[in-house]
Amino acid sequence: MELNYGIIGTGAIGGFYGGFLAKSGKEVNFLFNSDFQHVKENGLKIDSSTGNFHLKQVNAYNKSEDMPKCDVVFVCLKTTTNHILKEMLPSVMHKNSVIIMIQNGLGIEKKLAKEFPDTSIAGGLAFVASSKIDKGHIAHYDYGSLTLGFYQKANDEVLNQVSIDLNNAGIECNCVEDLNLARWKKLLWNIPFNGVCVVLNAKTKELVSNEESRKLVSDLMYEVVEAANHCGAPLKTDAIDEMIDSTFKMKPYAPSMKLDFDFKRPMEIEAIYSNPVQEAKEAGYDMKVTSTIEKQLYFIQETYK
Amino acid sequence: MELNYGIIGTGAIGGFYGGFLAKSGKEVNFLFNSDFQHVKENGLKIDSSTGNFHLKQVNAYNKSEDMPKCDVVFVCLKTTTNHILKEMLPSVMHKNSVIIMIQNGLGIEKKLAKEFPDTSIAGGLAFVASSKIDKGHIAHYDYGSLTLGFYQKANDEVLNQVSIDLNNAGIECNCVEDLNLARWKKLLWNIPFNGVCVVLNAKTKELVSNEESRKLVSDLMYEVVEAANHCGAPLKTDAIDEMIDSTFKMKPYAPSMKLDFDFKRPMEIEAIYSNPVQEAKEAGYDMKVTSTIEKQLYFIQETYK
What we know:
The structure is a homodimer of 305-residue chains. The first copy, chain A, has twelve helices and ten strands. Chain A has 305 residues and is of the alpha/beta class. Chain A has two domains: 4-177, NAD(P)-binding Rossmann-like Domain (Rossmann fold, 3-Layer(aba) Sandwich), CATH 3.40.50; 181-303, N-(1-d-carboxylethyl)-l-norvaline Dehydrogenase, domain 2, CATH 1.10.1040.10. The longest helix of chain A has 21 residues, at 179-199.
């Protein structure tokens, strides 16, 4: 089955996955914002730890209305701009399109499903260290895998083909049955590190090097596990110590929320903090520590402008 | 009964209460650190909202060994230097001296009592906005009352006389039966405002003006009430809304811990956070939100040097 792809938001994530698919010969239609003119003239550059490449000509668009209908749409925007999807997506969708939300946090597909109740919607969890370092220029530092799972109106045939296409393009991709569990698993790292790095103005390494902040990271992880289990995601505590140790061994790293804060972009507080806190509360569990970080982040976002 | 007084630590608190007592004609012996020579030559100045005064000659000392024995000793150091008391106090004490710990937090008298098991030990809660603005120069902005209560070997006659002496000197002072309750009452304000002002780099007004940080302040207050009740202090939640409202009406205020942080002095994390968290834990209650702030403060103290 030959699929064509649309990338909504060609930044560190969309540029990376879309770039690899395009390089492997797939039809990929990229939506750009401010980089459009530059990419139209100069193409898209990917500096990857697996080898650099330059796509001299890419299907670049600056309006979704100009894009062709796509079998698979990767939504790679920040969750803070998801409110534009309701208007933007219909022009790139046909009846059987699969929308894949490659974003952090929780409650993302649920919100989209309210707006598109008859559409195949999946989620994607990107485990990749990459960033946009210049116009049409993505740097890939480490990792790269993608985990996919359906939220509504599963179309396994298409999702399996996406996985095959990505693997053929050199990206490790796997499909899971339980998207909810996959999202909570990712929150296990994102909830402690994203927000606390902002509140304490630190990188990951500092948080796990100091005894007290390491305890705070661990408290948050145990709380995420407890919340996940209340929300039907059978997450275990086994991974916690290893996850902290491996973060200690990583290069000092500024998580995406810390970068957003440093560059004065809106932070994904709702998706990464408020939605999990709210879902847990509805399931009868009070994420007290997470909710403390959540409130601090909102204060910081509204005050440090 | 005529009492003589010793002031261990003549700063914003010790200078204020000791200054008023000296002005009223009581014998007050002040221990100074770096201000000693200046006060010896120029005396002690108090700019008070109730009227300014200048004590041209005061009993100033720079070593406790040189001080006379005192009937009543006000300990007005920061809790972070309490480790020096074991060596320092004996020279100013006679058999019936009363030591009054005018400090913030919890567990202060307990620690001193281990070192001085046979001494009359009381606690004092200062409700005063004052600061040392220059050598031997204290500014008093607002409030001023002092609450006293015994921790061990109560000597009510002396404590009542202290209260009378202070009231005669123009200071509102009252004695309470339940020092533990008085300390938890004060923590109801200190736990939310001292630490969160440091973590979020804000003054009180900002914290209660922003919806999310105001919720955090409220969460912390409810947690303090719950902890207090587990620790035998029948604190009520009634005062919470009014306390937040009155803090909103106050001038923007930097609590003592925020000043300590800004001037790179050690913060009183142990007395204001760790001791309450620990006592509550021993009583079976986990102060999750307070403990989050505690860990953040230790990280900040160790990292932002």
